[in-house]
């Protein structure tokens, strides 16, 4: 199957690592295994069949405690959609499944670099995100 879009550019739109103080850092170092990864995909129409697709990864502690760090990255791609894409469903599939699948390796690498450079070199993401599965589950 041929792709119905072309990625023109990929870039880190925003990146954040926040740790308030050394006590927080030490607490997080002990408890980072409790942190959860969340992903959100958004899109914004630009001119001339161009679309900005942004994937936001957040790694955060859902527990209500004072000492927590915040890690977040917004990774964007500018795509041009082929002229023959007319159906809304096809466009949704491109934005929510196809583009995230293509940019995910770069997103994951950048995000892990952020966390590792924030003092947590042993953190690994447990598994790759399956955008096909996430896309299909939206309609169940």
Structure notes:
By secondary structure, the protein is an alpha+beta fold. The protein has one domain (5-137): SecB-like (Bacterial Protein-export protein SecB, Roll), CATH 3.10.420. It is built from 3 helices and 4 strands; from the N terminus they run βαβββαα. The chain has helices at residues 22-31, 88-117, 131-137; strands at residues 5-18, 36-45, 50-60, 70-81. Strands 1-4-3-2 form a 4-stranded antiparallel β-sheet. A hairpin with a 4-residue loop joins β2 and β3. The longest helix has 30 residues, at 88-117.
- Structural category: alpha+beta
Number of domains: 1
Count of helical regions: 3
Any idea what the radius of gyration is?
17 Å
CATH superfamily: SecB-like
N-to-C SSE string, H for helix and E for strand? EHEEEHH
* Overall strand count: 4
The CATH topology comes to Bacterial Protein-export protein SecB
Describe the structure concisely for a colleague.
The protein has helices at 22-31, 88-117, 131-137, and strands at residues 5-18, 36-45, 50-60, 70-81. It is of the alpha+beta class and 140 residues long.
